[in-house]
Amino acid sequence: MLFKNKDNSKSKTFISFKVVIIALVALVAGCEEPFQPLEENDQYFYSIYGFLDATADTQWVRIMPVRETTDYSDEPIDATATLTELETGEEVIVNDSLFSMPQVAPGDALIWNFWTTFDIKPSHAYSLVVERSDGAVSKTTVNIPDDYPEPVVEGRYISLTGVNNIAEARIDWKVRDRRDDTIHLFRILQHRIKYFQDDDEYLITVYPNVDFTNEILETLEADQVDVEILDTKAVITVAGKDWIDFSELDRSIIALPQATSNIENGVGYFVGTIRKTIPFPVCVGDFGEIVSCQSIID
What we know:
Number of helices: 4
Shape: globular
Largest sheet: 8 strands, mixed
Structural class: mainly beta
Strand order of the largest sheet: 6-7-3-2-17-16-12-13
Radius of gyration: 21 Å
């Protein structure tokens, strides 16, 4: 084992970070003064969903007006989005792009995604201000977490130190289906995470054979001999102090702005992150099972 047993350790089950961002789009009722997005309001102007990633070269954030109708429009959005680094005052106007998202709603849902190549730095704070032409403003401030040491892989364990919040941990598989020589990519979320709060340490346990069998072979409807593993990597996303642990929230309130939104005069969720990608090699055991290569050495 990588860590000594401690009384204050606890297991956590993490909801996929991207699934959370998508789920928050669907606002639900259930509080004393429920928010009705399709009614006229003078309190919520924009919905803002996304994250700033200090390891990405391009930042994306979904910005939509809080509308009084479910109709989608390809008319230019009445929104100017400004991203500012608070320490230096450097700012940039974020570009808008219209996307068609048929998987979001019946028909062609039209979604405004804003993007920028503005340099995002660890340990820095940024404000995002979205302003309408009549002066109405929705805004938020996010904190990028401190940089942290590279995660360490030992067998089927991945350990992290110097972090406070894991937003997502997954294994990316690249495989080849020998039957038709096609390449397939799988992103498999890891739920089995143990957290040692006093030492800011995380221990992630990976079961590659279970993931390979249940996710990859079942999806491809293949036998193990039909699939060649080309590459496997661990991808860990650490979030800043603005992170909300959605795994500890009741699902009925996750989408309520009063419970989860950090947008002033708006709805949604915006957070700072740092992502690390490291090799997580897997091998084939004596009985054809998929295991971590360290397990064979041991």
